[in-house]
């Protein structure tokens, strides 16, 4: 019998590669791409039985899942599609996958606009916000506030080493927000000029810890010391259901070439280079987590997580 992984389509592998190289970035965008890739696998498959098709889908999901271990929206998207891949024939399964992907994408589209309206309620006319990295959920909150007629300013951290803050700066400028760009190490200096720190999340643990771009934790500690509220904007697809059972969130380590090139490394003695993509901000440093379902204190996020996922977790891509 053929290995199901050998039948994973080139389109799925290209999507996985784009996610791994961060050509596809942002939790919602990653989740959308993963769901569509599973739909494409189902449509392209020549499997004649439901079991064979589901085996191919699980193999495709494993290829996708292994690309970004910290971005929990990716396994949540895979889980949603695979758990709905029901049917007594292969055609039934294909139809079920198409339906679940359409439902999931619709949920994604509505979730961000709903979250934006919730988050905008925290922002007042004339406020200045500080951002870190690039979060479409954070931008949704700001955009909704601007659409309500509020004038806002932003201090944007450049967010090394990939400089995602530049993307944030450009998109805020396009919204009409007055933008000041700063180097990461200058954040504490300007926190007294800020009404809110707004950050996104790649995942949120059951205890309310926020896993986000490296540097978020230090920013949160400084914000608490300065008395500046820090708010995390995150759709519920970023809740990490595995942490309900005590699972520890994996922190992705990225290539040293993002930090330093070979020639420069040789010039300074070829040091060991560590490039963690994320860090963990304890819940005591976060004032609120804004989702499409409302605002929650970090310690209450477990209630929402249990409501959405139950006590047990399932990884349907595992054989």
From TrEMBL:
Keywords associated with the record: Carbohydrate metabolism, Isomerase
Binding sites annotated in the UniProt record for substrate: 25-28, 68, 212-213, 238
GO term, biological process aspect, one: L-methionine salvage from methylthioadenosine
Keyword Hydrolase in record: no
EC number: 5.3.1.29
Gene3D superfamilies: translation initiation factor eif-2b, domain 1 (1.20.120.420), Translation initiation factor eif-2b, domain 2 (3.40.50.10470)
Active-site residues per Swiss-Prot or TrEMBL entry: 133 (proton acceptor), 202 (proton donor)
Enzyme class, broadest EC rank: isomerase
A single GO molecular function term of this UniProt record: ribose 1,5-bisphosphate isomerase activity
Catalytic activity line of the entry: alpha-D-ribose 1,5-bisphosphate = D-ribulose 1,5-bisphosphate
Annotated family: Belongs to the eIF-2B alpha/beta/delta subunits family. R15P isomerase subfamily.
Anything else known: Reaction proceeds via a cis-phosphoenolate intermediate.
Described function: Catalyzes the isomerization of ribose 1,5-bisphosphate (R15P) to ribulose 1,5-bisphosphate (RuBP).
Protein's recorded name: Ribose 1,5-bisphosphate isomerase
